[in-house]
Amino acid sequence: MITLQDALQKGKKVLKDNNIDNGEYDAWLLLAFCFELNRAAYLANPLKEIFQDDLDAYMDLIGKRSKHIPLQYITGEQEFMGLNFQVKEGVLIPRQDTEILVMEALKVSKDKEILDICSGSGCILLSLLKLGGARSGLGADISETALLVSRENAKKLGVTAEFIKSDIYSQIDKTYDIIVSNPPYIPTNIIPTLMEEVKEYEPTIALDGKEDGLYFYREICKGLKDHLNPGGYVFFEIGYDQGKAVMELLTEAGMSNICIIKDLAGLDRVVTGRWNEKKGEPFT
Ligand code: GLN
């Protein structure tokens, strides 16, 4: 006889032997996913008998994780801002750090028109629309896979949003009250040093910010004058060491009220700025 507990022990051992970070926890999460269990149901009956086929199905998922495939690409989902987002290979997995950006933007997003550049899974824009009472939202991404996933996420969350294929502003002609972006910001030469889960399985196109990591911030800042309304806000997620450089770009673009917001680990994570009613003059 095979039990749930046996399956879990086997799963933990395989992930440990393959040096998977947090392998014990991932073995549990995959068990919960595979058998549609929560912790209480498992603890109520860990000796519940399972069929060989079920064990095989579970060990198949464990096998994927042992090859460093991110857990979220195996389960197909990631929670973000308390909402469930679908993900798959080809789309960046939403990060907890990015919730900092959403929480800041939520303070001002009510009734606003929002543009999300490099929208990926749609996690930023859809959270703002679902939780912040924004008036409308447009997501722009160059990846067809990302566009499909974000449209699917909008449908599942019951949110109205448009997602279009655009290389930064190339297909965008309107102006917006808020521009948000978590663009690719990792310098190209750092990518080989990232965790295997990230560098092997997450899309390089969603990570690579070109030579100094600042390419997308520069391009987005150049277009602010044509795409941000007077009084409008910008929110960028940044790498921990990019705060000063991105503040300078916003200053050059004529923004005011520029400040950095730190994440829970105390690292610089978001840069925000606002435009005066007359663009280019300090906001008071
Ligand atoms: N905006 C998406 C996110 O924050 C995708 C970001 C990206 O592809 N760089 O997850």
Order the strands across the largest sheet as they lie in space.
7-6-5-8-9-11-10
CATH class of the largest domain: Alpha Beta
Q: Per the principal axes of the C-alpha atoms, what is the gross shape? A: elongated
What composes the largest sheet? 7 strands, mixed
Radius of gyration: 21 Å
How much of the sequence lies in strands comes to 15-25%
Distance between the termini: 72 Å
Mean pLDDT across the residues is: 96
Give the structural class.
alpha/beta
Helix content: 40-55%
Number of strands: 11
The stretches of 5 or more residues where confidence is low (pLDDT under 50) are none
| Count of the separate structural domains | 2
Sketch the topology as an H/E string, one letter per element.
EHHHEHHEEHEHEHEEHHHEHEE
Structure commentary:
Strand 10 (256-262) and strand 11 form a beta hairpin. The chain has twelve helices and eleven strands. It has 284 residues and is an alpha/beta fold. The protein is elongated and about 75 Å long. It starts with a strand and ends in a 10-residue tail after the last strand. The model has no long low-confidence stretch (mean pLDDT 96). Helices cover 40% and strands 20% of the residues. The strands form three sheets. The chain has a seven-stranded mixed beta sheet with strand order 7-6-5-8-9-11-10, sandwiched between helices. The protein has a two-stranded antiparallel ribbon with strand order 1-2. The chain folds into two domains: 2-67; 80-275, Rossmann fold (3-Layer(aba) Sandwich), CATH 3.40.50.150.
